[in-house]
Design brief:
Among the domains are: 477-613, Integrin domains. Chain A, domain 2 (Immunoglobulin-like); 629-757, Immunoglobulin-like (Sandwich); 760-860, no CATH class. The chain has 860 residues and is mainly beta. It is elongated. The chain starts with a strand and ends with a strand. The strands form 18 sheets. It has a six-stranded mixed sheet with strand order 49-57-56-51-54-53, with no helix packed on it. A five-stranded antiparallel sheet has the order 1-3-37-36-35, with no helix packed on it. The chain has a five-stranded antiparallel sheet with strand order 2-34-33-32-31, with no helix packed on it. It is built from three helices and 65 strands.
Length: 860
């Protein structure tokens, strides 16, 4: 006897938390083997999933009952929602015999893999058995064993019995014209689906025609399922009006088209301008293993509406398919999984990381690849399974689940939840569900059902290796609508701490905007209201009068509407009056634990509320001030005389002919060697100037906050030269500009140029030793022809002293000393006038002060 336990476990962890429930509320469906008849063969419980009315269908294609005469028949399990003990194996009528013989056909159901694929609508359940062995005699003593079949049944009154069961098998299609050898690996029933418009049964057989694959589109007829024109009676299906895709028109006879597995994945959706649903089918090994996905009419009368090709060899493009309207534009979109895609990024190669391509349907019914999600884990196989979850958070857009079941060979598995929006899929996962002990968690996914009847759609995830199906419940989403009201449109500047406490009142009202959420006494809501949240603590401008702080916390029971009033005040002497004050409210919803109740969760889109309030500025109807600043300057003196001028005074006049200018500043950049002394102004406005921390050469004067419209200010800046030697230019240049914080305000700039006048007075004093040199020149002829005057052992010393008696330094002074020489005709070079006396050398009485302070001797 097989039992199911619905238990709470810590095998699985949930990362992030919107809006599926955390692990303590997950439910696990497992097969528990009978003690008397334990099974040694895995049942593959969870291989396929489907939803039928208020039940979850679970396929176990290798399941074997110890009391069953058929070995490993496979099974389908049906678990009623909101019931811990009503999971039963589904029994299809006329399915009890191990071997069924009808005419020349013979069915062998051992290892048929019943439940390998599942589909259901309100009235029908269809289960594929792709390895059902259907032996056929062609009438010439040749038998063919055709694998594959499917069972469809009409919903009955019994939980475990499906009425009016029919067996589908390709061997009865076109009985007299079949080539059975081509059906030898049919795997008919590998994938099954039910379309709504028109109502048809869709069955794939990827092994047909040497694994090129085939698709069958069969109408759902009346429920007596008897057609007397067919030579075989029930339970076999009357195969008339059957659409059957055998050899597609664009298939060549090339042997490389074999083994392409047409029909590996199957889905239905609307991709043209009629009301009928089209068939979406994958061919993962087509085109040299790049794969393709094709979209065809429901009756297969036209081969293909369009084809989408894969891009990478061996990526298994189309291993999973999901049809969903992501952006709520009324057109079906398509997700295609390629779990064996290799990601090459940043020098890394992630083999089998996986990839999902997202195609959006335009109003002209074209499919455009707009988004791609690539795996980030080696061997993870992102996109192995895809699921349309429906609108799990009730924001008006459908959401998607993508499995990554084989990280670290399956020891780590993840399910990524993506939210839809009007702009498409939000590529950052809103939630990551992680399994550590469920190997291969995410083999199959199933959404679009409400297990606990709380109005929110839930998710089923299977782990075939551990034969476990986890039912993950959605949490009710609480959406908060916040409204703020204040006693005046803007915050008055005079509403300070010493003014009446009624000068500015803020009212915060909270509304719960969700009809599906029924609040209880277990739920409590709290919020933190922060004033001027953009500013740091020292620069904050607005405070609660009650606490003299900028943060307020409130805790209260959840109700449909609640309001709170707060009295606020402005800080004295606020500098920033132009930028608005940002108010931020952070909500937290808490609930007391209850194992029988799924706790609600806040919508992250409105868990934080932002609001801005302007400070009173008197800027007219648009609350935007545009000043018009003008700058004029004068100087004293007109010329800087080095050593004579003691101070330099700059006169600055600023006029505002526009609207109020806020945080108006005048900055003066001083030249090198000049220091700021003081400032004064004749204006009634309190003006103060100071040097900036990063540079004492920049002086900033605050002209008012605000500098009123039609206002004028005149100020004087007193400076002095403190390091003349550092001045390299010929003039002193002061750069002056005026700015304000108003957006779009003009910024007038000007320069003051003061020439530098130098007034040195140089005096040169010299002394010679000896003062005179005497020689006998009575014989004039001898003097002239002797070439020089003969004065042996003569020492001549000249001492020169240079003095600057002026008020300023001399920039560059040059002294030239000419030593007498006598040029004679007939000689190329001059000779010394004094024979025996060498060219003089220089002896300095003090070291040079500068590198360019040096002396040279020139011959004359």
């Amino acid at each position: 006897m097989l039992l199911f336990n619905l238990i709470f476990s810590s095998l699985v962890a949930s990362l992030y938390s919107f809006n599926y429930q955390t692990v303590e509320h997950w439910r696990y469906l497992r097969q528990e083997q009978s003690i008397d008849h334990p099974s040694k063969v895995p049942s593959y419980f969870g291989y396929s999933l489907a939803v039928h009315r208020s039940s979850l269908l679970i396929g176990a294609p290798r399941d074997h009952s110890p009391h069953d005469i058929i070995t490993r028949r496979g099974s389908v399990w049906k678990c009623e929602f909101r019931s811990d003990d009503h999971c039963q194996r589904v029994s299809f009528r006329r399915d009890g015999e191990a071997n069924v013989r009808i005419g020349t056909s013979f069915d062998n159901k051992t290892d048929q893999w019943l439940g390998a694929s599942l589909a259901a609508n309100y009235d029908h359940i269809i289960a594929g058995a792709p390895f059902l062995k259907h032996r056929i005699n062609d009438g010439h003593s040749v038998e063919y064993e055709i694998p594959g079949g499917a069972r469809i049944g009409k919903y009955g009154t019994s939980l475990s019995m499906i009425d009016n069961t029919q067996i589908y098998s390709p061997s009865f299609l076109n009985w007299y014209s079949r080539n059975y050898n081509q059906e030898g690996y049919g795997e008919f029933g590998f994938q099954v689906a039910l379309s709504k418009r028109p109502e048809r049964i869709l069955i794939t057989a990827p092994g047909s025609f040497y694994f090129r694959g085939g698709i069958h589109s069969i109408p759902i007829l009346n429920y007596n399922w008897i057609d007397t024109r067919h030579p075989f009676t029930a339970p076999h299906y009357p195969w008339h009006d059957v659409g059957w895709l055998r050899y597609p028109s664009n298939y060549s006879s090339n042997e490389y088209d074999d083994w392409c597995y047409r029909g590996y994945a199957l889905a239905v959706g609307n991709f043209n301008d009629d009301a009928n649903q089209e068939i979406v089918v994958s061919i993962p090994k087509l085109d040299n293993y790049r794969g393709a996905v094709e979209i065809m009419n429901s009756n297969l009368d036209e081969y293909s509406i369009r084809t989408i090709n894969g891009i990478q060899m061996g990526e298994y493009f189309g291993a999973s398919l999901c049809v969903i309207d992501i952006d709520n534009d009324g057109f079906d979109d398509l997700l295609i999984g390629a779990p064996l895609y290799t990601v090459k990024k940043d020098g890394r190669i992630l083999a089998d990381a996986g990839r999902v391509d997202i195609f959006y349907q335009t109003s002209q019914h074209k499919l455009i690849r707009k988004q791609t999600i690539e795996g980030t884990r080696d061997g993870g196989r992102l996109g192995h399974a895809l699921a349309n979850l429906g609108d799990i958070d009730k924001d008006g857009y459908n959401d998607v689940a993508i499995s990554i079941p084989f990280i670290n060979s399956g020891s780590l598995s993840m399910i990524h939840i993506y939210r839809g929006s009007k702009h498409g899929l939000i590529l950052k996962p809103s939630q990551i569900l992680q399994a550590t002990a469920l190997n291969g968690f995410g083999w199959a996914l199933q959404g679009l059902f409400d297990y606990d009847n709380n109005g929110y759609l839930d998710l089923a995830v299977s782990s075939v290796r551990t034969e476990t199906v986890a039912v993950i419940l959605s949490r009710p989403v609480v959406r908060i609508q916040t409204r703020l009201q204040h006693s005046s449109p803007t915050i008055p500047l005079n509403c300070t701490s010493n003014i009446d406490d009624k000068c500015f009142i803020l009212t915060v009202c909270i509304y719960l905007n969700d009809q599906n959420y029924q609040h209880s006494k277990r739920d409590a809501l709290s919020y933190e209201l922060q004033l001027d949240s953009d500013k740091n603590l020292m620069d904050q401008r607005l405070f609660f009068r009650e606490t003299y702080r900028s943060i307020k916390k409130r805790h209260f029971k959840v109700s449909d509407r609640i309001c709170h009033d707060y009295s606020l005040y402005m800080k004295d002497d606020v500098t920033d009056k132009l930028s608005p004050i940002r108010l931020q409210i952070n909500y937290i919803l808490s609930s007391k634990p209850d194992p029988n109740v799924v706790s609600p969760i806040l919508d992250p889109d409105n868990a934080i509320f932002d609001y801005k309030i302007s400070i009173q500025k008197d800027c007219g109807y648009d609350d935007i001030c545009i000043p018009n600043l003008h700058l004029s300057t004068s100087k004293w003196p007109d010329e800087y005389k080095v050593g004579l001028t003691k101070k330099i005074v700059l006169t600055i006049d600023v006029i505002n002919t526009g609207e109020n200018a806020y945080d108006t500043q005048c900055s003066i950049q001083l030249p090198v060697g000049v220091e700021y002394v003081r400032s004064n102004s004749s204006s009634t406005i309190n003006i103060y100037c100071n040097s900036m921390k990063q540079s004492d050469r920049i002086i900033v004067c605050h002209l008012g906050n605000p500098f009123l419209a039609n206002g004028n200010i005149s100020l004087q800046i007193h400076t002095a030269v403190n390091n003349y030697s550092a001045i390299q230019a010929d003039s002193l240049i002061f750069v002056i500009n005026v700015t304000s914080d108003n957006p779009g305000s003009n910024k007038p700039t000007t320069e003051i140029n003061i020439p530098i006048a130098s007034s040195p007075e140089l005096v040169l004093i010299g002394a010679a030793k000896p003062e005179q040199i005497s020689t006998d020149t009575s014989d004039n002829h001898e003097f002239i022809h002797s070439s020089y005057m003969r004065k042996p052992d003569l020492e001549i010393i000249h001492t020169y002293t240079l003095h600057n008696k002026g008020p300023s330094d001399a920039k560059r002074t040059e002294i030239k000393l000419m030593w007498p020489m006598l040029p004679l005709s007939g000689f190329n070079e001059p000779t010394p006038l004094l024979h025996g006396v060498d060219l003089p050398s220089i002896i300095r009485t003090s070291d040079p002060k500068k590198n360019d302070d040096r002396c040279h001797i020139y011959q004359s």
